[in-house]
Amino acid sequence: MNGRVHKTLIVDDEPLAIERLQILCAPHSQLRIVGTASDGNSALRLVEALRPDLLLLDISMPGLDGLQVARACDGQSPRPAVIFVTACDQFAVAAFDVAAVDYLMKPVTPERLERAVDRLACVQAAQPSHAVPSPWLEEFWVPHRNEVIRVAAADIELVEAERDYMRIHVGPRAFLLHQTIGALEQKLDPTLFVRIHRSTILRRDLISAFEHEASGSWSARLPDGRRFRVGATYLAKAREMAAR
Amino acid sequence: MMNEGQQPRQDSVSDSPPGVDRRLALGSILGFWLFYFLTNTLRSLLGWLGKNQLDMLERRAVVTCFGIVLVYLLYRILRRLEGRSTQILVGTAFVAAIPISLAYAALNFVAFYVISPVMAQHEELSHFANHYVASFLLIVDVALNWYFFVVAWAVFYIALSYAARVRHAERNEAAYRAEAKTAELRALRYQINPHFLFNTLNSLSSLILCRRYDESERMILNLANFFRSSLTSEPTDDITLADEIALQQLYLEIEKTRFPDRLAVKIDIPAELGDAAVPGFILQPLVENAIKYGVSRALRPVTIGIRAHTEADQLHLSVEDDGDRIEGTVPGTGVGLDNIRNRLAARFGARARCAVETGATRGFRVDLTMPLLRAAPMAGQ
């Protein structure tokens, strides 16, 4: 175990849940609990007063919820790191773009907490706190089986819209996210991704060619031979890419 | 647990093809021809069709039999086209009616003019110079008259067929809806609120880590009791009010472990209403909502009250909480309340009601009104 000691604030509206996290944190010498709060408003007051480096943050709470607390902390300098601790993955979807070090599911296992603490050290080593954050989405959280896992935006290969949902393909895996493709498009770096159809976003470096179909429409070809049709309103962008 | 005795009721969905009942179709053919036979006999009785009543009656009977056979052929043709569009059926009927009426007219000609024609008919023919042309014109003339008769029957049959199809579709639709409703009830019943489950397990784990074993034990027993009751009872069964309240107390006791400082419970059920029959778990969505919107979002203690009383043979049940009003939510529009309204309507029709009342700044109350039924004492209880 390496690194500095994190001043930690535990926020949960259930007293037993706070107790449990206190017990779980006790063996970790890097975590020093400086306070606990049982709702979002008092959490913000304690953030102000105690200047913690880390929040173990429940999401579903009276008053301000965990997501609102995390967003309110964005103004803080330095911003405390956030590890969400919640019972339901439904919030992960709503909060897929809220910057968080990790996303833990209740009841949290000691091993999982340890991984989160390790990750905290990695993130802080890699990212000096004065770095200017990118305006584009760099990572997000998706529910997967009994976990919420982190996906780097740059690993996305293909996004397909399915009604109110979208399916995000990352290597051999696909995640279903309850978000519109338009909302995601606005958050993805346009130098890395291109929307070629009402229901398709592709990573630019994966497009090996644009092909003119016999039917008169255009389609984008991937190295594995898959083809995706280019929508009429997205043709200009495709031509621009093909011209390069 | 989901697949015991829960086969979908296939028999309630009619699989027989939609179509006119065979007996009804044949009956309509006979009816049409009987109508012709009777009206023409009546006309001849009134003296318009000349003498020889008995002789004419026989001929008419024979011709009618042929007519029945011919229209039966038309029926077989239309029957083969069952399920096609009404336009196709009508078009076919209009075309097929042409040879059928011609055939009928020819038979009619043979019966009345060729086989020992009576005087009147004989004279009719003798006006014409060419016998064959005359016969042909006469047959066409009769066919034209009968064409409308045949088409009238065909249209009548197509109308019957259309009605049968509509009825079939309606029946299937109703059966399908009933199936969907039962499935939905089941799904709602078996749907365990994940938020409740995982938070409860989290509290339980905490109790164990804190070595509060007696409380852990009680919580495990409460959970087991609650889940067994909710998973094993039939979603459409009634239970006694006493049992229903006991279930809700179990649930509230579990929640009390999660919210020790924020949840207070007040239950006021007159003892004589303990054996009143209520749909099982009818209060569950209300109590769950009171926790979700009243208690878990409040920064202060909230009291959940469950009350019952009777008034004019009606049972009144209410669940209320004194939590704060939440901005941006419209009370009484949730899935839970819809579920309750549907269940009450399915069980009691218009005799049950579900009314929502909200305070100006705090408080939420749902009143259920239903007929007061006493649960039949069950064997062994």
CATH topology of the largest domain in chain A: Rossmann fold
- Largest sheet: spatial strand order of chain A: 2-1-3-4-5
Rg of chain B over CA atoms, rounded to whole Å, is: 38 Å
**H/E order of the elements of chain B?**
HHHHHHHEHEEHEEHEE
Measured distance between first and last alpha carbons of chain B: 25 Å
- Low-confidence segments of chain B, ≥5 residues, pLDDT <50? 1-15
**Average pLDDT value of chain A?**
87
How large a portion of the residues of chain B is in β-strands, by DSSP E? Answer: 5-15%
Strand order of the largest sheet of chain B: 2-4-5-7-6
Number of strands of chain B: 7
What does this structure look like?
- The complex is a heterodimer of chains A (244) and B (381).
- Chain A has 244 residues and is an alpha/beta fold.
- Chain A has two domains: 6-144, Response regulator (Rossmann fold, 3-Layer(aba) Sandwich), CATH 3.40.50.2300; 156-243, Beta Barrel (OB fold (Dihydrolipoamide Acetyltransferase, E2P)), CATH 2.40.50.
- Chain A has seven helices and 15 strands.
- Chain A has helices at residues 15-25, 40-50, 66-73, 90-94, 110-126, 181-187, 235-243; strands at residues 6-11, 31-37, 54-57, 81-86, 102-105, 139-144, 147-152, 158-162, 165-170, 173-177, 193-197, 200-203, 209-212, 218-221, 227-229.
- In chain A, a hairpin with a 2-residue loop joins strand 11 and strand 12 (200-203).
- In chain A, helix 2 packs parallel to helix 3.
- With 381 residues, chain B is an alpha+beta fold.
- Chain B folds into two domains: 17-180, no CATH class; 194-371, 2-Layer Sandwich (Heat Shock Protein 90).
- In chain B, 60% of the residues lie in helices and 13% in strands.
- Chain B contains ten helices and seven strands.
- Chain B has a five-stranded mixed sheet, covered by helices on one side.
- The chains are: A alpha/beta (244), B alpha+beta (381).
- Chain A binds chain B through residues 13-17, 19-20, 23-24, 39, 41, 60, 62-63, 87-88, 105-107, and chain B through 194-195, 198-199, 201-203, 205-207, 209-210, 257-261, 296-299.
